[in-house]
Amino acid sequence: MVLLYGIKNCDSVRKAVKFLKAHEIPYEFIDFRETPVNEATIRRWLAKSDLKTLLNTRGTTYRTLGLKALDLSDEEKIGWLAKENMLIKRPVLEFEDKVIVGYNESEYQNTLLHI
User: Fold this and answer.
1) What's the rounded Cα separation, in Å, for the pair 13 and 33?
2) Is 10 a catalytic residue?
3) For the residues of the chain, what is the DSSP string, one character each?
4) Model pLDDT for residues 39-74, shown as the tens digit of each residue
């Protein structure tokens, strides 16, 4: 079962949902706003991804919070991701021993169609 994390009104999340449905891949959707992820989940993702990919530095939340000016350490960034899930690049797909951050159709095809 694929776990799809994100928010309902995100275009990238909608693309991921469309892909999963089109290929009849069962998934469970976890909305960050209804069920925030904690630091343990973020660290689990980071074991299979990296902080640069997971932290959305292009989003409104990052700019609004002024995090760039704070010159945060990696540990502080992880703390912010846990405290403010809207800083997480969306969607996050978790399945088997893999994590895919963001929507990339070719990566989805190469990975998800072979599970």
Assistant:
1) 14
2) yes
3) -EEEEE-TT-HHHHHHHHHHHHTT--EEEEETTTS---HHHHHHHHTTS-HHHHB-TTSHHHHHHTHHHH---HHHHHHHHHH-GGGB-S-EEEETTEEEES--HHHHHHHHTT-
4) 999 999 999 999 999 999 999 999 999 999 999 999
Q: For tokens 């209804």, what's the residue?
A: 34
Delineate the domains of the chain, giving CATH numbers in brackets. 2-112 (3.40.30.10)
Active-site hit among 3, 10, 25, 46:
10
The encoded tokens of residue 78 equal: 């992880």
Model pTM score: 0.93
